[in-house]
UniProtKB/TrEMBL annotation, chain A:
Keyword ATP-binding: no
Gene for this chain: mdcM
Membrane spanning residue stretches: 12-32, 38-60, 72-94, 106-128, 135-158, 164-186, 198-218, 230-253
GO molecular function: sodium:malonate symporter activity
Gene source species: Methylobacterium haplocladii
Matching Pfam families: MadM
Entry protein name: Malonate transporter subunit MadM
Chain ranges of the Malonate/sodium symporter MadM subunit N-terminal domain: 5-253
InterPro entries: Mal/Na_symporter_MadM (IPR004691), Mal/Na_symporter_MadM_N (IPR018402)
Lineage: Bacteria, Pseudomonadati, Pseudomonadota, Alphaproteobacteria, Hyphomicrobiales
Signal sequence annotation: none
Keywords assigned by UniProt, alphabetized: Membrane, Transmembrane, Transmembrane helix
Source species, domain of life: Bacteria
From TrEMBL, chain B:
NCBIfam families assigned: malonate_madL
Keyword Electron transport attributed: no
Record-level GO cellular component terms: membrane
Keywords, in A-Z order: Membrane, Transmembrane, Transmembrane helix
Protein name: Malonate carrier protein
Membrane-spanning parts: 29-50, 62-81, 93-112
Amino acid sequence: MLHMIEHVFVEQSLVAAFAVVGALMLFSNFAAKRLTAGRVHGSAIAIVLGLVLAYLAGLYTGGKKGVADIPALAGIGLMGGAMLRDFAIVATAFEVDVAEAKRAGLVGVVALGLGTLLPFVIGALTAVAFGYHDAVSITTIGAGAITYIVGPVTGAAIGADSTVMALSIATGVTKAVMVMVGTPLVAKLIGLNNPRSAMAYGGLMGTVSGVAGGLAATDPRLVPYGALTATFHTGIGCLVGPSILFLTVRAIVGG
Amino acid sequence: MIILGVALLAACTLIGVFLGDLLGIALGVKANVGGVGLAMILLIAARAWLKSRGRLGKGITLGVEFWAALYIPIVVAMAAQQNVVAAASGGPIVLIAATGSLVTCFAAVALLSRLSPGDATSEAFERGGSIVGGSADDELPARPIPAPAPTVPAAKE
């Protein structure tokens, strides 16, 4: 019997994912209303629950894709994968208030610049503090602090070794997870409650998965504006990481 | 027709990602540069164009907005497939680099939103929230509109 149910889940993977995620959201909204009296967004609880499940599944399967490594839940991998995620992000643009987005354009550009530079500097300094002295390793770890895609793309381009690459990716993934969980907690403190600050936030935080999760958990109204700038962030990071940033680091540390 | 909305969204996404790939090649980067962002701009332009010609029908809107409403569940599925084990076992260098850049960037958001305060009162902003929210709270009354005060909280850094 159990085997047959599993068979259905494997065969209908995407449909099963819709049902499972729907159930998770239903539970989260219920918990938000009953346990926190509506103070915490249901989607924030759902995202944190998703991360917890991904952690448990990772321990259980030893894989890298959270619950998507469990055969019966493989559809979650398709539903939450880059293809449908980007499709849904583009769809949110339908709701953008064009006038407001245009007014905030300059802020978005400034944020993108800072959002590339600041994490890189922090990541690079951390690498130096932990005893890395070659330009390739410092740049790769610094790039990982930008996003977990910029890290390996930069590392591959400048020939970093695999241990450093792993550190770089882990830094980016940790940042993404922290952005998802941390954003609703600090939203008030950093003034994240209008289209303009959402665009600044998207550019600064960068990591599309972090921003997507963080804004969804904070306030759905902010999503299109943050996503608009965040989606440029990884591309810019991949552009300047192996070029300007690497050359600058090499000029400073020599070698 | 609803499929036209979905197809419009798909076309914008494909063209945007393609342009992002081209831009990546032109810049000599092994990555897509801003493809999704370009796709969003295309969709915004397409909506404006359709609206100006009076052809932005209910079907097209529904086809796009259905996917916008699925955004949060998709993000939950995305969260459930992160490599959280790797993140949790990265060691001190990973934790310090990630926390350091996170805190710095949050501070920079606070600074930018003070230097250039926005306002959260537009109608499109409210409406967008109810769509993207996917009526997640549809049993609840509409969210209270925040007071249109200048949006600078008494933040302490």
